Amino acid sequence: MDLIQGNTTIERILNGERELYAEIVRDHQDMVFRTCIGFTHNSEDAEDLTQEVFINAYQQLSRFKGDSKISTWLYRIAVNASLNHVRNSKKRSIFQRIESIFVKEKIDGQHALGQSGDSPEHLLISLQENEAIQHAIDSLPQNQRVAFTLSKYDELSQSEVAEIMSISDGAVEQLLQRAKVNLRKKLAPFYKK
What we know:
- This protein is mostly helical and about 190 residues long.
- The protein has a domain at about 1-90: Rna Polymerase Sigma Factor, Chain: A (Orthogonal Bundle), CATH 1.10.1740.10.
- Helices cover about 75% and strands about 0% of the residues.
- The chain contains nine helices and no strands.
- The protein has helices spanning about 5-15, 20-40, 45-60, 70-90, 95-105, 120-140, 140-150, 160-165, 170-190.
- The radius of gyration is 19 Å and the shape is globular.
């Protein structure tokens, strides 16, 4: 949806054609979910946040200025909602994290517990690797984590990430480089075992 079409759709929704909002949700739901799961690492939380993002966006439609695409605006709302959720949520127990990783693997079409020919030892190692990676990403400084998540989970270009974060392409490149260096440092001890 380009800027002109997006602005026209928003205007029509604000003028009473509320059913058009379902098109916005349908067109952007997967993108918002991927963004949320990139921060939460939990499909249930990501689903809840996705609903929250679209409710908040609907309530703020009159504030949409049309300076950017609707997708960029929704990304910003999704990133903010995800960061707030992560900040406010208490640490989950190891059992909840184990369950969420297997649920995520099942959603992604990968093996789930009981459906794999892998040994329990291999599954535990895989689980530990996933947990270490998620912890390393979560411990990055906020701007690095946002840039990395949008770039790697959502596969956005540097210019798209720059637009969402309201920074330059060069700043995004620096954030991604710093994130990669930090992740290598954080994960090096884990992979030396």
